[in-house]
Amino acid sequence: MTALCARIAGLSAELGDVADPRDRSTLLELLRLLYRVGREDLPLGRLFEGHVDAMQIVSRYGTAEQRAAMTGVVDAGGAIGVWNADAPGEPLRLAAGGLTGGKDFASGAGVLTHALVTVDAPAGRQLVMLDLARVPPAIDREVWRVVGMQRSETHSVRWHDAPLPSDALLGLPGDYVREPWFSGGALRFAAVQAGGIASLVDGTRDHLLKAGRADDPHQAGRLARLYAVAEAAAASVRHAADGWFRDDAARLPLVAAARAAVYAAGGEAIGLAQEAVGVQALFRDHPLSAPVTDLSMYLRQPGPDAQRMQVGAAVAAGTLRVTL
């Protein structure tokens, strides 16, 4: 077992119930755990969020036997992910009972013990549950040459006529993209990202205190602004969680608003941290170097313009209203 896998297993033990949160309190408890992990280690937060996603999907759509198998995997210290991005030109498919094709942006490849992957079926996107020891992919590690989130081990994976057990199919075609879970699940990674923003406040404060510069009025102003943008990111996640069980129509617009707010706050926080610390933050061994580059990479989730458009449409329709 890899060190990252072991850490995911340890965090998994804190979750308790792996089903979809049943009320505001349990949802906030989950989001606060994800926030805490993101504040400590963004690559770990990325993998742990995928692990939570996978467990919720199996709990939601799996048979009793599949749910029991997932429980056994977790109890044995395993870690699960969700790989959905098809490799261009060779999407993953089922042919004559075998698995052929690939996935890109497979976070945790070589780290995780199990994965949920999606394949196209005539009736919609089909989930397949894989024991990666029994159905190992070929892993291309040459693609993931990035300045941040290297430790998330996000690689390209391929299979060729890989035989599948009879119980590998999970749920029905179309279940994976069923709403509100598909889009609403973005609130989990927004919580991890908000934790990453908080880590920039922590790291910048620690640097300035150590350097004896925290009482400089310009630096104090930067710290104040860093606090404000980090709090705005966290507040947007809390607000979306508050609305999840209160207003069905506002659920997904609130998640989109949280994503947009965290994206904007993260960009500003990176700039403020780099201004406050200066060139030292660009040295690899500086404590802020990894959080800055990891957050910069992790914020680049797809479709930020689409999130803003969804929020704008909800405001125009009166679904979202500003309140105190």
Write up this protein.
With 324 residues, the protein is α+β, with helices and mostly antiparallel strands. It is built from 10 helices and 8 strands. The strands form 2 sheets. It has a 4-stranded mixed sheet. A hairpin with a 2-residue loop joins strand 2 and strand 3. Helix 1 crosses helix 3, helix 2 packs across helix 6 and helix 7 packs antiparallel against helix 8. The longest helix is centred in the C-terminal third of the chain and has 28 residues. The termini are far apart.
Q: Count of DSSP E strands?
A: 8
Distance N to C terminus = 48 Å
Question: What gyration radius follows from the Cα positions, in whole Å?
Answer: 20 Å
Proportion of strand residues: 5-15%
User: What sort of overall outline do the alpha carbons produce when their principal axes are compared?
Assistant: globular
Helix-strand topology string: HHHHEEEEEEEEHHHHHH
Number of helices: 10
| Low-pLDDT windows of residues | none
Helix content: 40-55%
Oligomeric organization of the protein chains: single chain
- Structural class comes to alpha+beta
Give average pLDDT, whole number.
Answer: 93
Strand neighbour order, sheet with most strands = 1-4-5-8
The main pleated sheet reads as: 4 strands, mixed
Write a short abstract of this structure.
With 324 residues, the protein is α+β, with helices and mostly antiparallel strands. The protein is built from 10 helices and 8 strands.
